[in-house]
Design brief:
Layout (H helix, E strand, L loop, with lengths): L1 H17 L4 E2 H7 L1 H4 L4 H17 L5 E4 L5 E4 L14 H13 L6 H14 L25 H10 L3 E5 L8 E13 L2 E8 L4 E6 L3 E7 L11 H11 L4 E10 L4 H6 L2 E6 L2 E9 L2 H6 L5 E5 L1 H16 L1
Antiparallel strand pairs: 1-3, 2-3, 4-5, 4-8, 5-6, 6-7, 9-11, 9-12, 10-11
Length: 317
């Protein structure tokens, strides 16, 4: 089925690029075998509209022209669909290669590789290897969660989704209906920012806590989508990167280096423990739980209680 659709899209693109005058739907149907096999006019119209939208999403500029008789025609002018020559120096090619390598272990690896192949065809210098290592460090963005791909597509297409979500303090997942805004990666974890319809408020969800399949829902968004900066600030706040207070913890010596990197002060207590003053923002309790028995919260009391609640929820399974 995928091959048949790809062939149909290719034939439609060739027809629109090869014509010197706009072609009507009737003419396109007579020119493309797959359209001739459509069972009815309605079936053909739906197929054609989907194909036309798919080609436009792929970047093909399709013009809609109405002639003197009021008949609508379509064409894709070559000058509107021709990119200027691409010239990249070694540093620019290296930057593109570095960006592509980030996704080599993730679900966008195919898209990243395909983009570089297109740049090769468009004039990327042959003597430049965009995959060549340009340093001792190799950046990667791991994406292991099955929810990443459907949520990425839902954010792109502005489609509401439904999924089961298990909060860190809950033993069982709960159903959520969300209007997804954006995906952000913080501290090696992926988060979804969006509008929770049932709660009538913006929420941030950690992808590793989504259970089961992500299901798309019909209808349009009911809440206004904020700009990218607002979404990123929301994710940062819920992930604990925006702090307005300080917390005091005990940390086992030789462990918890990410906590030590953020600490405002570190004091040796002896007996294999240190005392740290760290920024305290939303989500700190979830982060501290990840360090298990190597961390003990001293104050404030509310943070200590939140960490205890999370540990009890984990113990209950």
């Amino acid at each position: 089925m995928a091959i048949a659709k790809a062939e149909r899209l290719m034939n439609l693109a060739l027809c629109l690029l090869g014509t010197r005058r706009p072609l009507s739907k009737r003419e396109l149907r007579e020119s493309i075998e797959a359209y001739l096999e459509a069972s009815s006019d309605d079936s053909f119209n739906r197929m054609f509209e989907r194909d036309k939208d798919d080609l436009r999403e792929l970047g093909l500029v399709i013009e809609t022209v109405e002639n003197l008789d009021g008949e609508v025609g379509y064409l894709a002018r070559r000058d509107s669909n021709r990119l200027p020559p691409i010239t990249l120096d070694a540093e620019e090619a290296a930057a593109l290669g570095l960006a592509a390598k980030v996704w080599q272990q993730a679900r966008l690896a195919g898209a990243a590789s395909g983009a570089l192949q297109k740049l090769r065809a468009a004039g990327l210098p042959e003597d430049v290897d965009p995959y060549e290592a340009h340093g001792a460090l190799e950046p990667r963005i791991p994406v292991h969660e099955a929810a990443f791909e459907p949520l990425m597509l839902a954010c792109r297409d502005r489609r509401p989704v439904a999924f089961d979500y298990r909060k860190a303090t809950a033993a069982r997942p709960e159903p959520r209906i969300v209007e997804p805004w954006a995906l952000e990666c913080w501290r090696g974890h992926w988060y979804l920012a969006g509008w929770d319809r049932d709660r009538g408020a913006e929420r941030v969800f950690r992808l590793s806590r989504i259970t089961g399949k992500v299901r798309t829902r019909g209808g349009k968004y009911t809440a206004q989508v904020p700009d990218v900066v607002t979404v990123r600030e929301t994710v940062a706040s819920w992930a604990g990167d925006i702090a307005d207070r300080s917390a005091l913890i005990r940390l086992r010596s030789g462990s918890g280096y990410p906590l030590r990197a953020k600490a405002a002060s570190v004091r040796e207590l002896g007996d294999g423990w240190d005392e740290l003053e760290i920024p305290y923002g939303h989500g700190l309790d979830a982060w501290l739980v990840e360090f298990g028995p190597d961390v003990v919260v001293l104050e404030p009391a509310e943070l200590r209680a939140d960490v205890v609640d999370r540990l009890r929820a984990v113990a209950k399974g």
